[in-house]
Write a structure and sequence with these properties.
With 429 residues, this protein is an all-alpha fold. It has 19 helices and no strands. α5 packs parallel to α7 and α7 packs antiparallel against α8. The longest helix has 43 residues.
């Protein structure tokens, strides 16, 4: 165990050496009048931000986790001395949830895997199903969609076999969230409807609210804003009744996005502010990062590039620290858009390429569609219509898989406009 920090430290020193070497080279060039917009400057700025992203995340995690790890290890030793496997099981489950909140994914996975072994040994089917669901939620955060679906399906099967309708409904709701990311809309709707029926039959307000939140998110993506807002309005009073700040934060965040897409910016801003406040009160850093990132889109619409850049940097570091790859990719994409509109071409290209790489790595359809659209904006602003058209066509293909008809229509109109402009230019020549 003591070797792990040493390896990371040596790697960090090497990272510093590489960047210091780049900085020294650039300073020499600056003495000779190098351009601040040069490729070397963009490369240096990007490298320094990536290093800061990693170090700040590591530092925050270490501060937050040091005492908690010590307490968990002491409690585990106590449970093992007493040969109390049930207590050890509960400890691993709760520790896994806390590690996940702190962004310590390796420790969270280790705790959940230990809980799975103990629940199997104790033949505790309910705990086994719940642990699988928590592990699936972790996989969702890491953009490992198929692994998440496998966990949720296994959890659901155990609940059905052992007559646990409430846990079955929660597993179905988690499955619906995973289906959202894989654009399996029919499966998502079926899972939501089944979960809602089970929740309402047991008068479980919390689960009912979660289901409506999922349905609203799906309607939002399809451009059905009124349907989305109607679903969110069903969630809000239920979460308020329960005093569920996390649920309220998620719902206000989703509502803000619907209002933003309807171009109701004042309502959108109010909902984002409310969501951010509730996320902080709930101590949920994932929702807080998501709200920060969603606000970037609003600032871009309002042409406030300075605030957009600031919020992007906050979200990027938070998602990196949480190992939330989908969030990190989207933050990179939006930083690319910000720098495109600032005409900082070198940095824009760096972040857009990183976003594309991350989304390809995890097969994130929505992320790929949006990144290709942002790449198209970059190339269009640079005057390269051929590259812009290529990325627009790639974006359309991904949106078609998502059945995002509103986006498809918008991009097809843009493709036609670019082609017509190019044809007219050719005739003029």
């Amino acid at each position: 165990m003591p070797r792990k920090p040493l390896v990371k430290s040596n790697q960090s020193k090497n990272d510093y050496k590489q960047i210091l070497a780049k900085l020294a080279t650039f300073l020499k060039q600056a003495e000779r009048g190098a351009d601040a917009e040069s490729e070397d400057f963009a490369d240096l700025s990007y490298s320094m931000e990536k290093l800061a992203r990693k170090f700040l995340a590591d530092e925050d995690q270490q501060k937050a986790a040091a005492y908690f790890k010590l307490a968990v290890n002491n409690l585990k030793q106590f449970a093992q001395l007493k040969h109390d496997q049930a207590q050890e099981l509960n400890l691993n489950l709760s520790a896994g949830q806390t590690y996940a909140l702190l962004g310590l994914m390796d420790e969270a996975v280790e705790s959940y895997e230990q809980a799975l072994k103990l629940s199997s040994t104790l033949s505790d089917h309910k705990a086994h199903a719940r642990t699988l669901r928590q592990l699936g939620n972790l996989k969702l955060r890491q953009s490992q969609w198929q692994e998440a679906i496998a966990c949720f399906e296994h959890s659901n099967k155990i609940c059905q076999e052992n007559g646990e309708p409430l846990d079955e409904a929660y597993a179905l709701n988690s499955l619906a969230a995973a289906y959202f990311h894989t654009a399996a809309w029919r499966k998502m709707e079926n899972a939501c409807e089944h979960a809602r029926a089970l929740a309402e039959s047991m008068s479980d307000d919390d689960l009912t609210a979660c289901v409506y939140n999922n349905l609203g998110a799906m309607h939002n993506l399809h451009g059905q804003w009124d349907k989305a807002l109607a679903a969110f309005q069903k969630s809000l009073p239920l979460f308020e009744k329960l005093g569920d700040r996390r649920g309220l934060a998620e719902t206000y965040n989703n509502m803000a996005t619907a209002y933003r897409d309807k171009e109701l910016w004042h309502e959108s801003g109010k909902c984002y502010a409310k969501s951010l406040q509730l996320a902080r009160e709930a101590g949920d850093v994932v929702i807080e990062a998501q709200v920060s990132l969603n606000r970037v889109e609003l600032y871009l619409l309002m042409h406030d590039l300075e605030m957009a850049e600031k919020q992007c940097q906050i979200a990027l570091r938070a998602f990196h620290g949480l190992n939330h790859k989908a969030g990190e990719a989207d933050a990179c994409r939006l930083l690319g858009v910000v720098y495109t509109r600032k005409e900082n071409w070198g940095l824009a290209r760096k972040y857009l390429d990183e976003a594309l790489q991350l989304n390809n790595q995890f097969g994130n359809r929505l992320g790929l569609a949006e990144t290709h659209k942002s790449q198209a904006e970059y190339w269009q602003e640079k005057g390269n219509k051929k590259s812009a058209l290529k990325h627009l066509q790639n974006a359309v293909e991904h949106y078609q898989a998502l059945k995002a008809h509103r986006e498809i229509r918008k991009l097809e109109r843009l493709i036609d406009e670019i082609k017509a402009a190019e044809k007219n230019r050719s005739r003029g020549n």
